[in-house]
Design brief:
The structure is a single chain. By secondary structure, the chain is mainly beta. It is built from 1 helix and 10 strands. The chain has a 4-stranded antiparallel beta sheet with strand order 4-3-10-7, with no helix packed on it. Strand 3 and strand 4 form a beta hairpin. The longest helix is centred in the first third of the chain and has 5 residues.
Length: about 160
């Protein structure tokens, strides 16, 4: 079929895949024209997200604080107990090492950056004094939990880690 431009401005005679690679640039696409549904379906082939996923590695690491998405994304979270068990729903941790009364080492399943790390913890209810982060390496974060008298005490710990 010959290619023709109709009086209405439409083109006929081009089949799917009939345009050469890279002939349509980002400037040619109207703002907002590529929808989330199209991204999820894998319809955007050469954008690097053709599998429909946006991975952690594709997030912004911009030097502009408000644009840096990686700093606002949790890299690990879990609930752990002193018996050395990760509770259900955890992410980013491979195991727990019980270091004795109230001492837990949460082991990452990736190599973490120790730059600009924020770790938030919480403990099971009861007569707790608090939780102290006692160590941080590229492989683990360690906590000591204490009761209100300052003595080491076993407890479940909820933990969330933010890092670059």
């Amino acid at each position: 079929m010959p290619i023709s431009i109709n009086g209405t401005g439409t083109i006929t005679g081009i089949s799917a895949g009939g345009l050469p690679d890279a002939c349509i640039t980002a400037d040619d696409i109207a703002s907002g024209a590529v929808t989330s549904a199209k991204l999820a379906s894998g319809a955007v082939g050469s954008s690097g997200i053709s599998d429909g996923s946006i991975t952690y590695g594709k997030l912004s690491t911009s030097g502009t604080e408000s644009d840096n998405v990686k700093k606002r994304t949790a890299v690990a979270f879990c609930v752990a107990n002193n018996g050395g068990t990760l509770q259900s729903g955890g992410f980013g941790f491979s195991s727990v090492t019980d270091g004795g009364t109230g001492l837990l080492q949460l082991n990452f399943n990736f190599t973490a950056s120790t730059n600009a790390v924020a770790v938030a913890t919480n403990h099971a209810s009861g007569a707790m004094g608090g939780i102290e982060r006692t160590g941080l390496t590229t492989g683990a974060v360690t906590f000591q939990s204490r009761n209100s008298g300052g003595n080491a005490q076993d407890t479940n710990i909820s933990c969330i880690v933010f890092s670059e």
